[in-house]
Amino acid sequence: MNTLNIIPYPLKSDRQEGFFHLLPDTVITVETTTRGLGEYLAQQLRPSTGFPFDIQDAAQGKQPTNCILLVSESFPQTSEDGSYSLSVDSDNILIKAPTGIGVFYGIQTLLQLLPGEIGRQEPLPEKNWEIPQLTIEDNPRFSWRGMHLDVGRHFMPKAFIKTYIDLMARYKMNIFHWHLTDDQGWRIESRQHPKLTEISAWRTENGKSYGGYYSQDDVREIVEYAQERYITVVPEIEMPGHSLAVLAAYPELSCTGGPFEVPTTWGVFDDVFCAGNENAFTFLEHVLTEVFDLFPGPYIHIGGDECPKTRWKNCPKCQERIRQEGLKDEKELQSFFIQRIGRFLAEHDKHLVGWDEILEGGLAPDATVMSWRGVQGGITAAKLGHPVVMTPESHCYFDHYQSSDFLNEPKAFEGHVLPLETVYAFEPVPAELPPEMARYVLGAQGNVWTEYIPDSKQAEYMILPRMCALAEVVWSATHHRELKPFLARLADHYAYFDAVGLRYRHHEQR
Ligand code: TNX
Questions:
Q1: Could you say which architecture CATH assigns to the domain 12-138?
Q2: Residue of 31, 182, 271, 451 with catalytic role
C-alpha cells in the first residue's frame, strides 16, 4: 500500500484499500457555515479537472454518493486550533471540524492526496483523479506557524504575495509576517504622510528609479485574501533602526536633520529615529493608526532590531531624554522607545512583537519576542513569561544558501548555508526550558530577507522546499518527525510545484 505523501504529516492516519474518484458529477455538499469553504474547494478543483463541482446545500437533502461533504460542528468559531477529521470511502468524502479553520485544513489535506497535476490551470481530460480511501485525525502542534517576507529590500508584486499566501495555506502555515519597511524602501501607502510613497518607496539604482509600494486598497485585498485562507497578516513597521527610507523623506525625525537618501547598499545604518524628538513619536503613532485600520489581526511587529546607538550618544535631544526619564544609557533609551510604542499599541488593543533586541534594557510589558540571534533570546523571554516565536538564523533563515555548491546556487547571503535537513531538524522548544515555560513558545517562523532575492521567482526557489520542512516542524507531532520518510513524501510535491509553475530547488536524496 502506498504511503500518504502529506506534508505536514497528520497526527493519525489509517490507509484503507481502494479509492474515491473525482467525476464530472461529483458535488460539494455544504452547510450554511461551510459554503465559503465549499466555493474555495471548488475553485481549487475546477481548472485542472474541468468538472463543474456544483455546490449543494446539505439541508436540501444530499445525494447518496459522489459528494464531498464539509461539516463544521459549531459556528461561530469556538476553537481556533485547526483540528479536523477527514474520511474517504469509495462513495463519499467527509471533512468535519469544530470550526471553519479545521475544515480548511481538511481541504488542504484532501488536495494533497490528489495527483500533483491538480495545481494546473488547464484541464487534463484523461487524468484519473483518485483519492486513497482513509481516515485522518489531525491537529497542529503550535499556534504560530509563520512565514516572513521582506518586501523592503526588493519589492514583490501583489500577485506574488497571493502566491506566497497560497503556498503557506497548502502547508497549513497561519501567520504571514509582512516586513513592509526597511532602510532601502517603504512599501505601504500612508494617506497622512504621502512622502512615504513619493520618496521613501523609491531608490536610484544604476541611474534608474527602483521601488514600489502597496496602496491601502492593495493591502486590504491581501489581508482579505489571507483571511479567506485562515492566515493572519502581521505587518512590520521598523523602528527605531532600519528606517533610513523614512528619514530620506522626513529628515527632521532624525538626530542630525539629514539630508539623507534612500540607500542602495545593504547593512545597518547609523541614522535612526531620534528618541528625544516628540515629532518622531507623533509620526509613528499616526502611521500606526493607519496600520491598525488596515490589519484587523491582534499583532503589530515594530522591528526593534539592529539599532546603532551612535547618533543617540551625540544627540542633545536624546541625552536630554535619558536625563529626564532617569535612564542609564542608550540601551535603556531603546527600551524606553519600544515601551512607549508598546503602550500606544496596548491602548489600541494590539500586541507588540519585536526582534530579540527588544530584550535589551528591559522588555515592554506583554511583548512577544522573535528570537533570531539563536534561541537564547527566546529562552530568556519565555522565562520572563513572555510569548516567544523561534526564528533562529541557524535553522529558519531562508535567505541563506540551500547548499554549499555556491557556483550552482543563486547568490545568497554570503557565507551562510541552511540545508533542508537542518530546517527539518529544528526543535522550537529548547530542551533547557522547563515544561511550564515551554508553553510560552508559540511556534516558529521562516524568514525571507531579500537583499539577494531580486524577484519573486527567486523567492519561490528560496522557500521551496525549505518551507515544507518548517511546516512539518510546527504542525506535526514529534514522533512523526523522521527525515527519510519526509524526503520520500516531499518528492511527490514537486509534481504540484511543476503544475503550478513554481520555481523550487530539487532536493537530491542521498
Ligand atoms: C539581520 S534578522 C536582519 C535583517 C537582514 C538579515 C539578513 C533581523 C531582525 N535583521 O535586516 O536582512 O539579517 O539575513
A1: 2-Layer Sandwich (3.30)
A2: 182
